[in-house]
Amino acid sequence: MKKNLLKITSICALAFALPAHAALIGAVDRDYGNTADKYTPSSVLANGSCDSAHSNWLSITNADSCGRFYDEFNFSHMLYDSIDSFSLTITFSHSNNSFMGFIPTEFWNLRPASSASNGGATGPSIGRVGSGITTRTFNFDNTMDMFNDIVANQSFFLWMAHEGFGQQNFRLYSASLAVNGIEAAAPTAVPTPAGIGLLGLGLALLGFSRRKTKK
After folding, report:
1. Intra-chain end-to-end CA distance of the chain, in Å
2. Sign of the alpha-carbon torsion through 105, 110, 116, 121
3. What's the rounded Cα separation, in Å, for the pair 44 and 47?
4. DSSP secondary structure code for residue 143 in this structure
5. Residue 58 burial (CB < 10 Å; 0-12/13-18/19+)?
6. What is the average pLDDT score of the chain?
7. What sections of the protein cross the membrane (predicted)?
């Protein structure tokens, strides 16, 4: 009897204490431009910036005399126990300038940072595309530079690094940062339908076991 009761109790406890799994915690979305429904980063509006905002895109420019482009994706409002990775999706075009029409001169890379002044090593290339609008997703985990600093500061700063020569630019239409990890537990636990069902099954098995013991 005691053994049966212990098994049933374990089943019911498992129903209310299932382990959490890494999943999407939340996302911060940007649609860039200079109209009322668009977003213009503060770095584009700052003195010394060579970047410019248009109706539904930003012109990101590289030049020694220009201020750096950056955009902050703050996730301090999200409730989480831990963060495992970030996924950054950007939509862009015009990143394939060349010299004399065939020598590539434009190589833009993502450079994740923890602030407007603290960035790690240059990250992946966004790719060289023409006038056609392209969307690509890049994943970052704890193997990347700045990961721990970004999590601690609760802000992912997007920098753009240019490795070509001459003054170049490309168009950035949108960006979305997905934060992945383990969500924080709710303040008060509410039994789920599945948990209630398992609890009922456990009680039924307990009653059946008691009747069998009496016989």
Report:
1. 13
2. negative
3. 8
4. T
5. buried
6. 83
7. 190-208
Q: How far is CA 154 from the centre of its chain?
A: 11
The pLDDT score that the predictor gives to residue 13 is 44
**pLDDT, tens only, 66-98:** 899 999 999 999 999 999 999 999 999 999 876
Query: Are 88 and 177 a contacting pair, CB within 8 Å?
Result: yes
Two structure tokens written together for 109: 């890379």
Please count the other Cβ atoms lying within 10 Å of the Cβ belonging to residue 151. Answer: 20
Of 103, 182, 166, 97, residue with least CA distance to 131:
97
Dist CA 44 CA 168 (whole Å): 16
CATH assignment of 21-184?
A: 2.60.120.260
**Rounded distance between C-alpha atoms, residue 173 and residue 60, angstroms:** 10
Radius of gyration in angstroms for the set of CA atoms belonging to the chain, rounded to a whole number: 26
**CB neighbours (10 Å) of residue 27?**
15
- Six token digits for residue 33: 């431009």
Residue 153's SS3 state is helix
- Residues counted in the chain: 215
Name beta bridge partners: 174.
31, 91
